[in-house]
Amino acid sequence: MIEISRISKSFGGKEILSDISATFEKGKTNLIIGSSGTGKSVLLKCIVGLLRPDTGDVLYDGRNFTNSDKEIQTDIRREMGMLFQGSALFDSMTVEQNVMFPLNILTKMKSDEKLDRVNFCLERVGLENVNKLMPSEISGGMKKRVGIARSIVNKPNYLFCDEPNSGLDPQTSILIDDLIKEITVENDITTVVVTHDMNSVMEIGDKVMFMYKGKKLWEGSNQNITDTDVKELNDFVFANRMMQQIK
Amino acid sequence: MQNFGKFLIFIGQLFVRRETFVTYVRLTLNECINVGYNSLFIVSIVSLFMGAVTTIQTAFNLVSPLIPAPVISLVVRDMTILELAPTIIAIIYAGKVGSNIAGELGTMRITEQIDALEVMGINAASYLVLPKIIASVLMYPMLVVLSGFLTIWGGYVTSLLTGVMTGTDYIIGIRMEFIPFNVAFALIKAVVFAFLIAAISAFKGFYTSGGALEVGQSSTAAVVSSCIAVLLADYLLAQLLLG
Q1: Do B23 and A48 touch (CB under 8 A)?
Q2: Of B17, B19, B107, the CB nearest to A105
């Protein structure tokens, strides 16, 4: 479980996050949604420690991450996996080397054990016979899947996904969403997904937090997101004509 | 001053939360190929022509019958060891290796590859930059030695081809009044320049923000800043060690 408490962050005097508190539960896909520019990615970066919040704390299963020394932060980070918006695969490495990278650096596993684990993870995300390909030789959807394989190879307790569906076609998006959901349940991990894709919300949103202009406006699940009277959330959920007609 | 302080903090970061020794050995060997072996061609070409041009120009300026011919190669030798090999090649090195380091790290930054390392609990600065600096400090002095030999040899070949002096006079000249400390001085300069070029270029690349345009700007800034730092260090070292 991840708890964030009263997180605020400003850049150059402009407040991007304002006093945000939330709990992300274990074994569930926790979604942070909102329009572009509402501070979702900044919040995610504060949670994983890529940015330091001006105020507030982030607790990983009760362990204070934000205000701990670097050693403790490193220990907690080694329990994290993250899928980046652009996949962030290392250009100079093959798919296999990319997925194996966390094992090479963070574990003392033997070569054959590492290879078995890499092949298992690639198979798990539906990729076979791509081990020796370079990231430049695979499609965007495959890169995302390699990114997921790399983020789960070290058996993380916490999985973070930043816009996992951006730039993907609807079918591949659903595939990625399903994969995130399955991995979360299978491994009983805490997953936090930042997205503005309503399909993802409806498919995998066990717990949903809606952000608007740097503030948390609503919290609930995909079951009750359409029944709210928060105007900003309704505007977001029913932004497209099809959703308006369904409403 | 703010940038200089940030640079010092960046250098400090390289030595904390390091990975295993074996990891650094492997990365450093790869970087040695990148910064050293891959620079051989350009360093060789520049050195040969530098030697050729220096010999012709020195001969052109020393036309007095009172000045013996071997003085030409003596001048070429001392210019090469003291300045041409360590400093001019440093400018070339900054253009090739410095821009490469800044471009590579800048691209890694904007494509979130550096963030990916940080999230894994790896000290990205140390993991990515320290091997580049170590490789640079190891390989650049070797490039300077090679450059010195090729520049002097280029001068020798030119003197034979153009007839500005005889081969025997050239050899007499390069053995005349030799001061061994000059070689040590050149190597000290090489180590300092190698560190400055790799560290400044890495700093510029590591803190790139934005997109492709900013990566290009970081590469340019890396070369410009490295060249200025090299020239400044050149003056300071000359004043300290020869003054």
Answers
A1: no
A2: B19
Sketch the domain layout of chain B as residue ranges.
21-241
**What type of residue sits at position A226?**
T
Q: What is the ipTM of this complex?
A: 0.87
Per-residue pLDDT of chain A (247 residues; tens, 9 = 90+): 999 999 999 998 899 999 999 999 999 999 999 888 899 999 999 999 999 999 999 999 999 998 888 888 888 998 999 999 888 999 999 999 999 999 998 888 899 999 999 999 998 888 888 999 999 999 988 998 899 999 989 889 999 999 888 878 888 888 888 889 988 998 899 999 998 888 888 888 889 999 999 999 889 888 888 788 888 888 887 777 777 776 6
Q: Which residues of B touch A85 (CB under 8 A)?
A: 112
Distance from CA of B35 to the nearest CA of A (A): 16
Task: Say if CB A41 and CB A218 are below 8 A apart.
Answer: no
Residues in Cβ contact with A154 at an 8 Å cutoff, skipping those fewer than 6 apart = A78, A81, A102, A103, A106, A107, B120
Of B17, B112, B113, the CB nearest to A74: B17
